[in-house]
Design brief:
Elements lengths: L23 H15 L1 H19 L10 E2 L5 H4 L1 E2 L3 H8 L3 H19 L1 H11 L4 H12 L6 H12 L5 H10 L13 H26 L3 H9 L4 H25 L7 H7 L5 H4 L2 H11 L3 H28 L7
Antiparallel strand pairs: 1-2
Helix pairs in contact: 4-16, 5-10, 6-10, 7-10, 10-12, 12-16, 15-16
Amino acid sequence: MATDLVPEVVQPAADSPRPAPAPKRARRARNLPRDLIRYRWLYLLLLPGLAYFVVFKYLPMYGLTIAFKDYVPFLGYSGSEWVGLKHFQELFSGPDFGRLMFNTLLLAVLTIVFVFPAPIVVALLLNELRVNVLKRSVQSLVYIPHFLSWTIVASLTYLLFSVDFGVIANWIHGIVGGQKTDYVAQAGWFRPLIVLQLLWKQTGWGTIIYLAALAGVDSQLYEAARVDGAGRWRQFWHITLPAIRPTIVVMAILTSGHLMDSGFEQIWLMTTSLNRDVADVFDTFVYYIGITQGSFSYATAVGLFKGVIGVVLIFGSNLLAKRLGQRGLF
């Protein structure tokens, strides 16, 4: 019959084992040559950035070996004598370590308390403005200081707070009276001026990041909340704040890596002979020891210690964010 010509389809047994799928790592390795050919122009565009990081970021890390040597420039990296952890022991047991750590951590705490929340607050306030012209004008005004160098910021600080010709200093003196206060030179005013500079210069940059996060919030959520009778505070607490929480977490993780990095240029320009005790941080100390005194190995050890602390803080804050149920940086 005709049906006898049709081959019989053999059904696999129910208990027969199925072939296991290839692992994801094996599949990625197998598809890598094909992806390289398919996206070759994108990978070609990646090469300049990759070369920059290799040449200027990773290759110079070989110089960190002098932190474990008594480096002599005439002998070079390979000819200098290995001393192990000698310079780190000198750092931790030296008279300057406690002062440097206190000054650096205090500036870090002030940055977290005052500077980090400022862009969030400004972004939330700008998000409530309904006049687009006013909103864009304020956003541009707070963003312009980001493009100014720290030299200009320090010069403006001297023009405003100097005891001789400072505009704000003379205005405060006219109200309070008494003896004039040299805000720039006195040690007690060093940290407030640093925080004011950071607020004025960095707030606008962070504001744009948070405004971009707020722009992605669906407006229908606010409409539904208003229909349900939710006021401005309820809308902020249950819609706006959860929408920017992932961005806040990521920015907090990135900020934690720079807690020990107080910024050399800003601190250096604001340091005087009268406020040096409170102005010295690890960044400026590396310059004093390494450049002015020629202790390259000791200065490298100080910088390496600061960098290791930053890496530990990034990984620790990222792990903490994941433990708290948030999406980490990696």
